[in-house]
Amino acid sequence: MTETERQHDLSVTETVDASAASAGAVAALPPDNPLHAGETRSQWRDIWRQFRSHRGAMVALVLFLATILFVVVGPYVWTIDPTYVDIRARNQGFSAAHPLGTDQLGRDMLARLMAGGRVSIAVGLTAMIIAITLGSLIGVVSGYFRRLDAPLMRLTELFLALPLLPLLLLMVTLFREPLSQSFGPAMGTFILIVSAIGATSWMQAARIVRGDVLGLKEREFILAAKSIGTPAHRMILRHVLPNVLSPIMVAATLGIATAIITESALSFLGLGFPPDFPTWGRLLYDAVDQMIMYPSRVILPGLFISLTVLCVNYIGDGLRDAMDPRIRGR
Amino acid sequence: MLTYTIRRLLLAIPTLLFISLVIFLLLEASPGDPLGDVPLTVPPEVKERMREALGLGSPWYVRYVLWLKQFFWVEPLYWFDHVFGTQFSAGMQRIISFQSRSPVFDVIAQRVPQTLTVVGFSYLLGVLIALPIGIISAYKQYSWFDQLGTFVSMIGFSMPTFFTGVVLIIIFGVKLQWFPSVYDTTLEVRDWNSFWAQVRQMVMPVTVLALYNAAQISRFMRASMLDNLGQDYVRTARAKGLSERTVVLKHVLRNSLIPVITVIALGLPAVFGGAIITEQVFKVNGLGQLLITAIHGNDIPMVLTLTFIFAILIVLFTLIADILYGVLDPRIRYD
Description:
- The complex is a heterodimer.
- Chain A has 15 helices and no strands.
- By secondary structure, chain A is mainly alpha-helical.
- Chain A has 2 domains: 36 residues; 275 residues, MetI-like (MetI-like fold), CATH 1.10.3720.
- The two termini of chain A are 16 Å apart.
- By secondary structure, chain B is mainly alpha-helical.
- The longest helix of chain B has 38 residues.
- Chain B is globular and about 85 Å long.
- The termini of chain B are close together.
- The model of chain B has no long low-confidence stretch (mean pLDDT 83).
- Chains A and B meet through helix 7, helix 8, helix 13 and helix 15 of A and helix 1, helix 5, helix 6, helix 10 and helix 11 of B.
């Protein structure tokens, strides 16, 4: 397909997308160019095609998937227990038995990095899901129901005015003990950190979604749906939410990055997970005391954090470019 | 504009009251006991008296209102007396830290200079680096400079400051021994030698924070410049034969700075609070470090006051950013 044809296709898809409310209707339309009749086009396929042309984002996606594979499948391949203490093999360098060395208690670093990554990425994903759900809920509700708009936006502004890092530190210190007692040290901390991060990072998403919903409400298809008597809940689920999905997805991607950084920052300040429960931030924190002797133990978890966050940021960038129809196809 | 400012200031009062209440209740709900470190041999009735002495005996709302009074009435009066030599606050109880038993504000006043020199300077440096980078990347969009700038700023805000800080310490503090890895706050600048020592110990923390801030601000600068470069007035300016230098540095830059300045103003409160981690890495005993030790020591008045000061700064600078936006951009009308 030549560049002009592709441009034509893209612009046709856009007009079709803009006029049809759901992506399903697009596929049902007859193709305007019989030569490409066999190729199905949908909004998501279009976005994917656009996303693929963003080189940085593609590299980042591959690296991110590799990291996820490393932490999820890795422990099945490299079966050393990350908490197994082998005091005779402590502080070892890179070797065949321990490819990334061992720590001050002789625990295998590779296994610890895998286990730590699992927790870090799980925290990032869960906190992001909480923040995005909360944010889109508040955003959609305040954009759609005019009566709730003012109070909900005041609430958002209140939350934006909170000093977040000090509050997070406070919440984690204050409630770690009771939650650890009722859910076990690991699970309790996980719940606490995830909900604390989620509860303090939904505001941006809520604002973006609200703005988009306000704009959508003026569009004709909403008026049409309203005029045939669509009830509010179906209106939101069928017509509003799918159309604000792209900003939500971008916010979600970037949310993973902030959540991972926040978790490791908390761990770094010694307020994260318990010591025998590795996360990347915790590994870094534990290694800082011996960074003069064993710099690799600091650098490895730090590299993993940075690389993951960098990848996620690039993916978010690529997604934003692919989903914004104004810059799509440029 | 004035009515808008007054209205916003009035609105800030309930916001701040609410925030202080949230922080207070959060601390109140905590299971931590400020007397947790008192030895077990101390008899319970003595412990009860100590509790009374700390002011923990009365119900929470009494303590909350008392704290409000101390924060908004006693402390300002005290500083007023201090400056003008009057005696208004004589006999009034100031906010006292549980840990050091000295007034909270005196401790904070000791710590502010450290935070301001290191973190404030790095913010300034970050802005100064970020603006030209943003301008050049936007002007030469998709050039190698722009690509590099994008990549570096992506790395800049993907690398957490506790990692960049530690890496810098390993490279320049341990391996090369160029800079000291621990910030010495007892150092007084008296002559060239001590000034040089001060500069050397500031290099690494300032670099770490400046890199982080510059990464974000340069992205905003670039986006804002790109927005403006495509405007019609730019074409007009070029069409009437203005030099490229005038077009970019006078017309476009001035207009693009409007949103960037508000972003810079919004980021300023983070200078005080957000640098907690960097202060911890380089052992700078500034406000962030004070907060962390206070949290660990269950020092409720200190934590409450510090967090509330951060909140005031955020509300204040948001307000300043909004007003600046209206002042700089005559198209924005608030009234």
